[in-house]
Design goal:
Elements: E1 10-12, E2 19-21, E3 24-26, E4 28-32, H1 44-66, E5 68-71, H2 79-89, E6 105-107, E7 110-112, E8 122-125, E9 137-144, E10 148-149, E11 154-156, H3 157-167, H4 169-178, E12 180-187, H5 200-203, H6 209-219, E13 221-225, E14 229-237, E15 241-243, E16 248-250, H7 255-261, H8 269-272, E17 273-275, H9 283-296, E18 307-311, E19 315-319, E20 322-323, E21 327-333
Parallel strand pairs: 4-5
Antiparallel strand pairs: 1-4, 2-3, 5-18, 6-7, 7-21, 8-19, 9-18, 9-21, 10-20, 11-19, 12-14, 12-17, 13-14, 15-16
Helix pairs in contact: 1-2, 3-4, 3-9
């Protein structure tokens, strides 16, 4: 059902999982004005047209205020629909170069989300925080909702920084001074059994070692070739950033994810991330940080057709384990 002339295609909604953070509902939720369309009502074209016309006036102010916007009940049902929706938002695509997760291109600028096994949790992180070129925004889309579990919990980065600063001031001071070094060992091809199983050929989008070295160099990443793969060393790189647009510090890192989750046949998570001066991170503080992330997060169960738009400067995300089937797709934007 299309809204009457002069009104908005989108209206705000409340979900039981939302929480108020500093007076703002997180995440923001938009649903169709007048309720979800019935069978045969509401077209994808209407939705795409509304995205184009109301992105700047309706959606982006909410994204800036809340950090994440969930679009629910709209007529996007397939990967191709999602690709068209991402295009309608008009953000420039960011190629997935240097990221760790195994992903497959589905259509256009749409990829699978991390393809690691369903029994594995993916810890909280900012997308591609371990390299200097990261997306400003990312979209997730639920094509097939999980049988159970499989939420994508989100948490506000500035609030995590605030709590860590209150609880571990000396740790945060050292982190801000030295940053972090991320180390990861990659095979040649992808390892689908690992959450960080992306091989060097798909990481750098080439089969040529010299091209991989050029692309790594542009990222500020050092490569050390081995008989069956390569060790990548990234950093020191800041773990706390300044969000210029909002005027606040953010917990912009993959520290907990690397320390607890970068584990497979090639990688020891404790060695995967250190302070920028090479000294080890304290396990108790990492554990406490993980608890803070869980305490402050919001996990909205996926419904088929959900589109979640995340400001990567404001929000960390993760993935809970799940019972298949589940198919969540992603797209990264500059």
């Amino acid at each position: 059902m299309a809204p009457v002339a002069g009104s908005s295609f989108f209206q705000g909604a409340r979900l039981p999982e939302q929480r108020l953070v500093e007076g703002v509902a997180f995440p923001a939720v938009l649903v169709p004005t007048g309720g979800p369309p019935g069978p045969g009502e509401g077209s994808l074209d209407e939705f795409l047209s509304a995205v184009r016309s109301e992105r700047a006036s309706r959606v982006e102010p909410l994204l800036r205020e809340a950090g994440a916007v969930l679009l629910r009940g709209f007529p996007a049902r397939t990967a191709a629909d999602f690709d068209a929706a991402v295009e309608a938002f008009g953000y420039e695509e960011l190629p997935y170069v240097g990221g760790a997760a195994p992903r497959t291109n589905v259509v256009g600028r749409v990829f699978t989300a991390n393809e690691s096994p369903p029994d594995q949790k993916i810890p909280f992180h900012h997308e591609m925080a371990q390299i200097p070129t990261f997306p400003a925004k990312l979209f997730f889309f639920c094509e097939v909702e999980p049988k159970s579990g499989g939420e994508t919990p989100i948490v506000l980065s500035h609030y995590v920084y605030k709590r860590m600063k209150e609880n571990f001031p000396e740790f945060v001071e050292k982190l801000e001074k030295h940053g972090l070094i991320y180390t990861r060992v990659l095979g040649e091809g992808d390892d689908p059994s690992s959450p960080i199983g992306r091989g060097w050929q798909s990481t750098f989008l080439t089969k040529d070692k010299s091209v991989a070295e050029e692309r790594a160099l542009k990222l500020g990443m050092k490569l050390e070739w081995t008989d069956d793969g390569v060790k990548t060393v990234m950093g020191p790189i800041p773990a706390v950033k300044w969000d210029e647009s909002r005027g606040r510090k953010i917990w912009f890192n993959s520290m907990v994810a690397a320390y607890t989750g970068w584990k497979d046949a090639r990688n020891d998570p404790v060695k995967a991330v250190t302070f920028g001066d090479g000294s080890p991170l304290p396990a108790d503080v990492i554990e406490a940080c993980g608890k803070i992330l869980e305490e402050e997060c919001v996990a909205v169960p996926w419904q088929q057709g959900d589109v979640l738009l995340i400001d990567n400067w404001a929000v960390l995300h993760s993935r809970r384990s799940f019972e298949p089937p589940r198919r969540v797709l992603a797209s990264l934007c500059k």
